[in-house]
Specification:
The protein is mainly β. The protein has strands at residues 3-6, 10-13, 18-25, 33-39, 46-51, 58-60, 68-73, 78-83, 92-99, 113-114, 118-123. It is globular.
Amino acid sequence: QVQLVESEGGLVQAGGSLRLSCAASGLTFSTYAMAWFRQAPDKEREFVAAITRSGSSTVYADSVKARFTISRDNGKNTVDLQMNSLKPDDTAVYYCAASRWASRTASSESYEYWGQGTQVTVSS
């Protein structure tokens, strides 16, 4: 079966950096667009970043643009999210997601598979 497993998040001070990784199995990874979403307490899940199947194109939420970078390695079946200049507002559970048919979409409904999520906490 399809599994998306995020790496452990963590606690980081404001202004710091953290890198998340998502390992995929049970699917032909290179045929899936990938994305990261996040959900803060008492808030709806929101789009963070997406990357096309080849990795040639990316899209970001305005709130993370120029601070976060999404990348993928189709040989290792992984998608990463490098997070720099972190802010307390970035505190959330972060999820990776996979879509067979959509590409660079911010709509969570377009993604068929989801990881279990990993907690990122940014202290002020």
